[in-house]
Amino acid sequence: MQACYADNATFSDAAFRDLNAEQVRSMWEMLIKSGKDLRVEYNHVQTDGETGTAEWVAHYTFSATGKKVVNRIKASFIFENGKIVQHEDHFSFYKWSSQALGLPGILLGWTNFLKNKVRKRAAENLRLYMAARN
What we know:
By secondary structure, the protein is an alpha+beta fold. The chain has one domain (2-133): Roll (Nuclear Transport Factor 2, Chain: A), CATH 3.10.450.50. It contains four helices and six strands; from the N terminus they run E-E-H-E-E-E-E-H-H-H. It has helices at 21-34, 93-101, 103-108, 112-133, and strands spanning 5-12, 19-20, 39-47, 51-62, 67-80, 83-90. Strands 2-1-6-5-4-3 form a six-stranded mixed β-sheet. The protein is globular, with a radius of gyration of 15 Å. The chain starts with a strand and ends with a helix. The mean pLDDT is 96.
């Protein structure tokens, strides 16, 4: 994944917001290394060379709770010179949080309070991961 991104790439999803190229490369490394049982399926991949879309499903155990997650994601891309310069993933935060967090996700997964808490934790985990590598 790291080699797919241009040096000016950006990435956003419900948990990781507005990452730059260094952060998105580190995010994938962190998620793949910590995802001991990560399995990814993808389909409906389309591109015209400048833009693209794909659907993918990530199966994994959420490390913070030990709960199994099946996350269905729709991705959109913008490419330049064969590299991703913009990548956005869209998924149901409520469905994800219900699986990953259990009862708190079921009760609060629709709120900005929980979304912001998850985003803050994701950003901090990424910051700590990147600091430990340097």
